[in-house]
Amino acid sequence: MNYTKDQTEYMIEKYQSNPSRDTVEEIANEFSKSIKSVIGKLSREGVYRREVYKTKTGDSPVTKMEIVENIADALGVESESLVGLEKAPKTTLKTIEGVLTDEF
């Protein structure tokens, strides 16, 4: 067994009070374990939550194809009828999407 019951309880309590990568690193250092080991244990205990990727602007990532599908919905056409549009620059697609959905 890699972790005692007391160590597990301590890890869970510490992580839940501040769920971040820094906390995982602190726990790993305290127990002389690898970060992967700590993440694995916290995951098995059901408390670890992976950090969600955000873009440079802080938004959730959206693919060009998703934007094209939104544009197609706003126009009332099938996205297949807009073949090639996904090759346009993402900022252009977002502008078109914004205008069509009144978010611009």
Question: How does this model look, in words?
Answer:
Helix content is 55%, strand content 0%. The protein has 104 residues and is mainly alpha-helical. It is rod-shaped, with a radius of gyration of 22 Å. Helix 2 (21-31) packs across helix 3 and helix 4 (64-75) runs parallel beside helix 5. It folds into two domains: 5-44; 64-100, no CATH class.
What's the gist of this structure?
With 104 residues, the chain is mainly alpha-helical.
When the domains are counted, the total is 2
Are there runs of 5+ residues with pLDDT below 50, and where? none
Q: Total number of helical segments?
A: 5
Specify the structural class: mainly alpha
Average pLDDT figure: 90
The 3D shape can be described as rod-shaped
Largest sheet report: none
Q: How do the strands and helices of this protein lay out in sequence?
A:
Elements: H1 5-17, H2 21-31, H3 35-44, H4 64-75, H5 90-100
Question: What labels describe this entry?
Answer:
mainly alpha, 5 helices, 104 residues, 2 domains, 55% helix, 0% strand
